[in-house]
Amino acid sequence: MKRTYFNILCSLLFIIAWSLLPDFTISLLDYVGIYSVVVLGLVVMTGIAGMTSFGQAAFVGIGAYSTGWICTSAPIIEMLEGTGLVSLLPWAGLLLGLIIAGVLAWFLGLLTLNLSSFYLPLCTIAWGLSFFYLFGTLEFLGGHTGMTGIPALSLGHFKLDTSRTFGIVIWLALFFFIWILNNLINSREGRAIQALKTNRLMAESMGIHTTAYRAKVFLLAALMASTSGWLYTHFQRFINPTPFNLSASIEYIFMAVIGGVGYLWGAVLGAGIFTFTKNYLQDMPTHIFGNNVSTEAIIFGILMLIILQYYANGLWPRFARLFNFVSPINNEFPFDKYPASHLSVRQIPASDTTLLKANKVTKRFGGLVANQSISLHLKAGEIHALIGPNGAGKSTFFNILSGVDVSTEGHVEFLGENMFARPARDYAQRGLGRTFQHVRLLKNQPVIENVALGAHLRGRCGWFASMFRLDRKEESALRIEALKQIRRCGLDGSENLPASSLSLGKQRIIEIARALAGQPVALLLDEPAAGLRHLEKKALADLLLQLKSEGLGILIIEHDMEFVMHLADRITVIDFGNVIAEGAPAEIQVNPRVLDAYLGVSDETMASKT
Asked: Is the whole model's pTM more than 0.85, yes or no?
């Protein structure tokens, strides 16, 4: 079933149900909608961007208490009384909650988002608990007793004071968030967000400021949680600190896991299953377990174990298969509807221009010297090979040349500029493209999405434009560029296949196509021929020679000597972190030190022994 038909069907069923279901069921659906808004933020932050937070309930509380305070503050009400503006206080509360949550999220994000492993979740637990106790301590917020007398939301003279009327606002807000998040994910910015989860190093090499993107995702999730708190407050019209404790944050994560932490509609499914199950369990007779045992905790614990064991991706993928769409990303782009805009074009330097230059680069890891005073230069319009035995220090030197690592001594110049301690994204912005020894792709995404990620810096549309589909012409141009590079690299017909479904050799070609989509002036290839068959190697060699003729400078690490000797203009050989030879392929093939390094003994050494 197409998504459009599915959405129409769901809308019709929802309208019919809303008019026929009893008030109590409508109230439960309202809670599902409120919780889903928070869980949607978690889907983007945890499932797509790879950050786990146990503090989302705190941001829900900020939104709730902001509107609760401003709507019940006697001085504010007295000041506005008679002006007709009192009815607008709930909207002012929404704005206040968003501002406070945004400022706090940005500040906390800058402090904690660089943490990895379990340290980030621990930090979110710490400040989540802090906010919970703060809500209960501040007397002007009602303390642990709570705040009452919060007015219902009104639109003109129409009050939304019932679960059936206010529920329309809740679900309209939910559908709005699903729409803008779906637009965001299926965009240039969405590809950058997806790269944060497992490929931050690769994302930086594509020019993506990963720390800034993580902070923006964290901010987005906090603003959505604050909006959920605002909806909760004007639905309940009473608040106390209890719904904003650590247990609530864990429940939100549980909802995301149930539905599918990587799927937008999974947030709604998970919130629905959790809410209705919890309501049912509350009415379950306690004689089965006894009065002193928490039935809910036991059942939910068992449910979590079952889901993690048998439905690691959540229940939404299984549910979606019934309607023949499972992917959280819609890869069908209407090129005919959105004519492509112009992408930025980089000027290729003149032939023989020095693009990349290493000046006596040394890299130490404690007492181990991986690279010892290595100098190397790459010119426009040449193919330069870097070879050496395993463990010679090639990959370490490659990482220094591309900004992934920092040299202990010496420095790298790119286009005449000293790049010492510059991040990899700065190299990418100046025109450096690279591949990796161990393939780094968005493996569950189609080939075209992976290649389009390489053109990230050639686009300009930001989050707002992506959310409201103002980026369609640019997105069309990025995808057309991706298709061009896919076909150029001999991957025709695979653009809509998941990258993980292709062989390792073809995945390496995807990385080359991705690098070319950024229109680099220098291309660093780490073992590009590994895993390729003979004809595929020949096609790759033809491609590299064509790129060379267009003025690109290409630096290759490769173990296939036949491939290198027939392709490279110059070869640099390193062994034990030192340069032992440099010159044309014919010179390298007869160099005694190279033969010693590769074979353990050279002809000259054998002659001297005899």
From this structure: yes
